[in-house]
Amino acid sequence: MAKRRSVFVESPPARRPLKIFAFDPMLGRAAGNRITIDITNEKLAPGPQGSRVEVVDYDGANRCYYEPVNLDHPFILMQGGLAPTESDPRFHQQMVYAVAMKVIENFELALGRRMTFRRSRRLRLMPHAFYGANAFYDPKLLAILFGYFRADRSDPGPNLPGQTVFTCLSQDIISHEMTHSLVHRLRRLFLEPSNRDVLAFHEGFSDVVAIFQHFSFQSILRDKIQETRTDLRSPSALVDLAQQFGYTTGQGQALRTAVGNPDPKLYEQVDEPHDRGSILVAAVFDAFFATYQHRIKDLIRIATGGTGKLPEGDLHPDLVNRIAAEASKTAQSILTMCIRAFDYLPPIDVTFGDYLRALVTADFELNPVDDYGMRASMIEAFRSRGVYPDNVVSLAEESLLWEPADGLPEFPVEQLHSLILSGAQQYSSSAEPDRFIQTVSSDDQERDRTSSVGEAAEESEADVEGLVASQLGGYGRVNAAALGLDPQRSIAVLGFHPVFRVAPRGQLLVEMVAQFGQHDSAPDERFGGVPFRGGTTVVASAEGKVRYVISKPMRSANIAEELQQQAKLREQRQLEFVDHVDRSDPLLAWGDDAYVKNRIVRRMNFAAMHRGVR
Amino acid sequence: MSGKIRIRMYNVGFGDCFLVSVPAPDRTLQILFDCGSHSAGPGPRKVEEVAADVIAEVTVNGKPRIDVVVATHRHQDHVSGFQSELWSKVEVGEVWMPWTEDPQDPQARKVLDTQSRLALHLESAMVALGLADEVVSVARNSLTNAKAMRTLHDGFAGQAERRFLPPKERSNCSFSPACLPGVKVHILGPSHDPDVIRDMDPPATESYLRLQVAKGSRSDDLKLPFGSNWVVDESVFAIERPYLCLKPTEVGRIINFGKGEEFELAVALDRAVNGTSLMIMLQIGQSYLLFPGDAQWGTWSVALSDPTWRTLLARTTFLKVGHHGSHNASPREFVELVLSNEFLADVSTRPMSRWKYIPKSQLLAALKGKGGKLARSDKDEHDPPEFERVGDKYVDLEVFL
Asked: Quick check: A128 pLDDT over 50?
């Protein structure tokens, strides 16, 4: 009797484990520094090259490539990825890929849609692109370039003098740059400094993402909770950014830290984007810490028989485990809340105050009841740093919510249905590994470079085309004045996408977000080459009812008096910003006319912003 | 000249040299602020001749003597005149320099070291690139100026005391030095504040690091970061991994990042060195003479946010306009909101064909518009009667005690 062959087919696992340095090589073999993270499994070509990112290991200083890693090789799969080492470039490739994908996943989780890059091209990660103490995102190459350099010889901190330092082995640096690229994807015009907060937001937000990823590393978290007796604010690798980089460049400390005293003077005085961004980071961290304390209060009461006073000596490991779980849950909630706020931001001219309003609104939409006081803590943390949004009467939650839209007609929802459907398909397929990996195969990679995966999703991102663009554009034109835009000027559709989110109570929230923009095309030397812009984000429900209009009004006699006032205020702020830049810009003295005309535009690149990575 | 303070501004071209003479009961006190000229902006006479003039001016009974020599910062256009051998005969009471010159201060050593190293690499890289001399001169201005600095640190006749200012204690920043009877001195900068110090650090850009490599001083820097077994030649990679291979234009963009930024770097360095400038107010009778060197926004910002300093700045009766009249050494806040409506001002400058914003005409107009009476070192632009111009040598200003 012939045996029947089994028809059982192995299905690919949903997740792929990979090893990385939790922080950077400086911490060496310290407990918990070598960890395994898992990311969505996708089929990879040597590089690794996945569907959205690819590692291109070109060294511009030595003019050569390094052998690309094949993460699907059985020997590597067997070990769950290569073991952390500084001396094998393939581990570097693995680490940048793993961390980059982790950041993308965090964005997808929070935003409720699949992230792709412009025209569905792959973001390139270049772990050893140049010699230098810097790393930056270059939109033109659609690449993140990481530098490597020798540690300071006279002041290397806990490193060997002259040792080679790889910026691509710092989890923080990878996450930070990755976030820049995603922020740029979501809000291209946030690179255009029109007030003191815009570039600082880019930097601060990138630091927030990097910092809060630290809290997913359980063993380190447990150690620190034991060590600090639950006070996670005390200085440690958890709250510091890029320790190795800071020490090796002779700063004698980590690059930046999440902990900062609330001093409203800072927000008034500090201009440098990274330093100003640190105010945002400190505020978010404060909100995290307050929420975390709130969440562990009962655990501590239980453990101390109600006194709340922890006994001398080590904490009970069970207690530490439970507290660590709360800390990491809180951190993930805060991170998700921070990213989710993106959809409620104006398309241009963002301020920290706008961000606070976006945080409150986005979170309110999903959890009307603020169970752990997270929103309240966030508001308090911003307030204590002197960050007040414009045009609000108080800092109560109700007044911080963006204004609901009045009198705007329904969104042209008919024409958008197909987009919503394809968006939903994209998002759900990314959760299914087997279907997902069909989209890329090494045979047709050449073709993939130009066309490729997720065309539909791409259209629904920034480069809106065809019928949708004309439908939305028509909506924008007809309702220009209500959107705070000048009906006399042309209006561009900067972006449109459907969003799918599951609220903690289980219900599915579907929304549509559209962004409109316009600008003054007459060159204005006072702004150093950056045009004056107006822009509006519209959030609508799935049925087309407009929920929120988040606008940065354009100068125009055709809009409401109140909006005209806002436009005027924005213009003053833009001038004030240019004035601040000018007073410490030596090139204004030594430069020529062309420089003066374009002096602010010239600051709009990450390579320059990160000069000396400050 | 009894009863009057005289401020003499020498015409050194693009540079500074000011001699302040203050009558005292038994003699005239002489205070010299800087003596130097930029290599790209010489004056009508060589800086050595100007130095000789200064020395002749302070010679009494065949003995040259200066009570205090102030070197606001080590830029060539402020110190090059001290290269002259003639200074070895001049008796000097005290030499005042910014704290960044203190050889005992490790922080100062670090600042100086970084600045000088960058200047050195930058200058030779710019020369190698064949950049115009005027452009290279911006980097050259920040070179160590070793000979001149030797005079300031170890030269002069007599036992000149060296002071590195301001003291770390804020309360010691105003004092009445024994060597200058009747004069109260306020040192407003450079602060020891970490933010100000950070501005003294030129940016450590990748082009800077590359410069060090090019220079060969750290040739091991260019070694491969990995064993050569990992290296794949560009042409081989193009065949093996066509899907990852970069286009030639993309490679070009990568290897050229940070190139062609030498001039910007030189300007950033120039600003960093200017950031070490002493900012001094001399209070003599009713006169408040402000010599801010070439102080930049960092120093100004600290001074303007200190209430005592701000009040003091508001009393300014004479202003040496900083950095040859460029916009970045005279903040708008100071000019528009702090400065009174009645003051005298000297601008030591000359037009440079390449840098047309030095001096900045709007700044000079704003000072005049405010009610300031102002003279330039290089030319007579309707000198107010208070000033007396002697040929192309110097401009004198006398104010009553």
From this structure: yes
Q: What angle do CA B282, B285, B288 make, to 5 degrees?
A: 35
Closest-CA residue of B relative to A162 is B221
A249 near B CB under 8 A: yes
ipTM over 0.95: no
Cα distance from N-terminal residue to C-terminal residue, chain A: 75
Q: Residue A311, CB half-sphere, CA atoms under 13 Å: how many?
A: 10
Q: Is B162 within 8 Å of B253 (Cβ atoms)? A: no
User: Average pLDDT of B236-265?
Assistant: 90
Across A277-307, b (16+ Cβ under 10 Å) vs e yields bbbbbbbbbbbbbbbbbbbbeebbeebeeee
Q: Which of B120-134, B307-321, B364-378 shows the lowest per-residue confidence on average (mean pLDDT)?
A: B120-134
**CA–CA separation, A395 vs A578, rounded Å?**
29
Q: Is B380 exposed, middle or buried (0-12, 13-18, 19+ CB in 10 A)?
A: exposed
Pairing of strands A508-519, B28-42: unpaired
Residue B298 C-alpha from the chain's centroid: 14
- At A527 the three-state DSSP class reads helix
Q: If 0-12 CB within 10 Å is exposed, 13-18 middle and 19+ buried, where does residue B45 land?
A: middle
Domain ranges of chain B: 4-206+264-312+374-400, 211-257
Residue B270 and residue B268: Cα distance in Å, rounded?
Answer: 5
| Segment A27-38 mean pLDDT | 80
Of B203, B222, B224, the CB nearest to A611: B203
Whether the CB-CB separation of A581 and A600 falls below 8 Å is answered with yes
Contact B206 A132 (CB under 8 A): yes
Band of pLDDT at residue B1, cut at 50, 70 and 90? very low
The answer on pLDDT for B173 being more than 70 is yes
Token readout for A276 is 């100003």
CA distance B160 to B96: 10
User: Average of pLDDT values for A287-308?
Assistant: 92
Q: B241 to chain A: nearest residue by CA?
A: A46
The pLDDT mean for chain A works out to: 85
Neighbours of B133 (CB within 10 A): 11
Chain B's closest residue to A583, CA to CA, is: B328
Considering only CB atoms, A89 lies closest to which of B221, B230, B241, namely B230
Tell me the percentage of chain B whose pLDDT exceeds 90.
75
Instruction: Supply the pTM of this predicted model.
Output: 0.87
A360-367 mean pLDDT: 91
Decide if A131 touches B, using CB distance below 8 A: yes
